[in-house]
């Protein structure tokens, strides 16, 4: 079984992966680590860390897809998280694989970004990993990113979860969704 967690930066993907690892003892793999490993390992990887999420996502997807397929073929469980899993990627799997994949895409509503930009989004962006840079995105940048991401998720009919008012309360819906989907997959094994 594979759990895919995607979303824009600072939506809680890494923290969720860490929490799922601790609860279910399923290891997780950060696509950010793959990106930086390829970049630092050889400057001819075809991208820089400053390239767009879409450009990097398309370059990394064949590798990530191969990891997913290999894990499923070997009956191994893995959580994969990162903003480089793009909504249309989920359609790349036939039913043999897709029946063993749980995907969740996380986002923030425009209202949440406006009201909680400093107090929640910027404040907690280091909850699971150390980010040693100042927040350079403005509220308008974040609204545009999330609006574009929301549209892509909805256009592709994937499992999109949006925080609108209370992050802690609303993120529990995602954990419950994952747990329910895990039960369905385990029942069909």
From TrEMBL:
Lineage of the organism: Bacteria, Bacillati, Bacillota, Bacilli, Bacillales
Alphabetical list of SUPFAM superfamilies matching this protein: P-loop containing nucleoside triphosphate hydrolases
Highest taxon listed in the record's lineage: Bacteria
UniProt organism field: Chengkuizengella marina
Molecular function as annotated in GO: kinase activity
Keyword Kinase on entry: yes
Protein name per its UniProtKB record: 2-phosphoglycerate kinase
Keywords: Kinase, Transferase
């Amino acid at each position: 079984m594979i759990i895919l967690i995607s979303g824009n930066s600072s939506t809680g993907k890494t923290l969720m992966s860490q929490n799922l690892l601790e609860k279910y003892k399923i290891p997780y793999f950060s696509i950010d680590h793959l990106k930086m490993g390829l970049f630092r390992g050889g400057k001819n990887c075809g991208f820089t860390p400053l390239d767009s999420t879409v450009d990097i996502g398309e370059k990394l997807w064949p590798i990530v897809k191969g990891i997913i397929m290999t894990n499923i073929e070997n009956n191994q469980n893995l959580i994969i998280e990162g903003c480089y899993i793009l909504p249309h990627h989920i359609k790349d799997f036939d039913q043999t694989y897709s029946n063993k994949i749980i995907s969740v895409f996380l986002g923030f509503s425009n209202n949440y970004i406006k009201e909680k930009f400093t107090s929640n989004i910027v404040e907690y962006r280091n909850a699971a990993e150390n980010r040693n840079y100042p927040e350079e995105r403005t509220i308008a940048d974040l609204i545009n990113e999330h609006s574009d991401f929301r549209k892509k998720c909805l256009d592709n009919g994937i499992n999109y979860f949006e925080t609108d008012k209370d992050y802690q309360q609303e993120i529990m819906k995602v954990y419950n969704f994952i747990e329910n989907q895990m039960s369905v997959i385990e029942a069909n094994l």
